[in-house]
C-alpha cells in the first residue's frame, strides 16, 4: 500500500462476493463532489456548461463521513450537507514583462486557472468544526481554463455528498479491479537452452534458472508476477512442459484511490456498505415471515 493505491488478497470466497466488493467500491462508497455551479461572471472562451462539467470532475478532499446527504428539494445548503468553494480570478497584463517577450507566462498574470485557485468558503460553524481538515481540491495543479487580459471568472460551487451510481464524479476510486492468482506448474524437468527460452516466455521473476550439478534447470519462483500471457504455447517443445491455470478462490485486488480517502479506508467503507445491505435483506426476511 502507498498513499493512493493498495493491493490485497481475498482468499477462499466466491467470485460473486469479490465482484460485489468491486462494484461497491466503484459505485456505492460516497464522496463529496461539486454539484451546483453558480456562475456570476465568465468572460473566458470556455462555455459555462463545459466549465461546470470540469469543476464537477475535480476530486474534493473532504471526509464524506462527516456530512449528511442533501435533501432533494433544498435550494440552499447547510453546514451539515454542503461545502462551498469559490473561484474568483482575473487576468491582467504583467507590468514587469520585457518588451520583446512572447511568453504568456511572462506577459500575463493569472492567465492559467488551476484547481488550487478554488478556495473553501466555510458555511455556518464549518470553520471551527473542520479547522484541521484542509478542505479543497485533492490536486492543486489541474488546469481549468486559460485567460487573457480582461477576462475573469467569478464562480461559487456547492459540493454535496453522493455515490458513483448517480454520477461518475462521486466515484472514490480511479480503478478497482481484481484478478485470479495465476498457477504455473512444470510437468517435466526443463533443462539447458529450453530452460532459458522458458524463462523468457514469462514476465521477469516468474521463472528462474538454477544450476544443479552443472545442469541449468528451470524453476517456478513467483507465479503471482505472471501476466497470463500465452507466449509459451507458441513453442511446440515447451507447451506440454507447463500447465497454466488459475486459483479459483484467490483474488488479487487492486484499488487506486482518487485521493479523497485512503485506499484502506475505502475498502473498509465498502465492507460496511455490504454489511448494511446484508442486514437490510435479513430484516426484510424477518418482517415478511412475521406477516
Automatic annotation (TrEMBL):
Protein's name according to its UniProt entry: DNA-directed RNA polymerases I and III subunit RPAC1
GO MF entries: DNA binding; DNA-directed RNA polymerase activity; protein dimerization activity
Source species taxonomy: Eukaryota, Metazoa, Chordata, Craniata, Vertebrata
CDD domains: RNAP_I_II_AC40
Gene Ontology biological process terms, A to Z: DNA-templated transcription
Domain annotation DNA-directed RNA polymerase RpoA/D/Rpb3-type: ranges: 5-284
InterPro entries noted in UniProt: DNA-dir_RNA_pol_30-40kDasu_CS (IPR001514), DNA-dir_RNA_pol_insert (IPR011262), DNA-dir_RNA_pol_RpoA/D/Rpb3 (IPR011263), RBP11-like (IPR036603), RNAP_Rpo3/Rpb3/RPAC1 (IPR022842), RNAPI/III_AC40 (IPR033901), RNApol_insert_sf (IPR036643), Rpo3/RPB3_RNA_Pol_subunit (IPR050518)
Location, primary (coarse class): nucleus
One GO cellular component term noted in the UniProt record for this chain: RNA polymerase I complex
Family statement: Belongs to the archaeal Rpo3/eukaryotic RPB3 RNA polymerase subunit family.
Protein localization: Nucleus
UniProt keyword terms in alphabetical order: DNA-directed RNA polymerase, Nucleus, Transcription
Gene3D superfamilies attached to this UniProt entry: DNA-directed RNA polymerase, insert domain (2.170.120.12), RNA polymerase, RBP11-like subunit (3.30.1360.10)
The organism of origin for this protein: Salmo salar (Atlantic salmon)
Pfam families, sorted: RNA_pol_A_bac, RNA_pol_L
Gene from which this protein is expressed: rpac1
Amino acid at each position: 500500500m502507498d498513499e493512493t493505491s493498495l493491493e490485497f488478497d481475498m482468499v477462499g470466497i466466491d467470485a460473486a462476493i469479490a465482484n460485489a466488493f468491486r462494484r461497491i467500491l466503484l459505485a456505492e462508497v460516497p464522496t463529496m463532489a461539486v454539484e451546483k455551479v453558480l456562475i456570476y461572471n465568465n468572460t473566458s472562451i470556455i462555455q459555462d456548461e463545459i466549465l461546470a462539467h470540469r469543476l464537477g470532475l475535480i476530486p474534493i478532499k473532504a471526509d464524506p463521513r462527516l456530512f449528511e446527504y442533501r435533501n432533494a428539494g433544498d435550494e440552499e445548503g447547510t453546514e451539515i450537507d454542503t461545502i462551498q468553494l469559490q473561484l474568483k480570478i482575473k487576468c491582467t497584463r504583467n507590468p514587469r514583462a520585457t518588451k520583446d517577450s512572447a511568453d504568456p507566462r511572462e506577459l500575463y498574470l493569472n492567465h492559467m486557472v488551476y484547481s488550487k485557485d478554488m478556495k473553501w468558503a466555510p458555511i455556518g460553524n464549518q470553520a471551527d468544526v473542520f479547522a484541521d481538515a484542509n478542505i479543497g481540491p485533492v490536486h492543486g495543479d489541474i488546469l481549468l481554463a486559460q485567460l487573457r487580459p480582461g477576462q475573469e471568472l467569478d464562480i461559487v460551487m456547492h459540493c454535496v455528498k453522493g455515490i458513483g451510481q448517480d454520477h461518475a464524479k462521486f466515484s472514490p476510486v480511479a480503478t478497482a479491479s481484481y484478478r485470479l492468482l495465476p498457477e504455473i506448474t512444470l510437468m517435466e524437468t526443463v533443462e539447458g537452452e529450453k530452460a532459458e527460452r522458458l524463462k523468457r516466455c514469462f514476465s521477469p521473476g516468474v521463472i528462474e534458472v538454477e544450476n544443479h550439478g552443472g545442469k541449468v534447470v528451470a524453476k517456478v519462483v513467483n507465479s503471482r508476477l505472471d501476466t497470463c500471457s500465452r507466449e509459451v504455447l507458441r513453442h511446440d517443445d515447451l507447451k506440454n512442459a507447463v500447465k497454466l491455470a488459475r486459483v479459483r478462490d484467490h483474488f488479487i485486488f487492486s484499488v487506486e484511490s482518487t485521493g479523497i480517502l485512503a485506499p484502506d479506508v475505502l475498502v473498509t467503507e465498502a465492507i460496511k456498505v455490504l454489511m448494511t445491505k446484508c442486514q437490510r435483506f435479513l430484516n426484510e426476511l424477518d418482517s415478511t415471515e412475521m406477516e
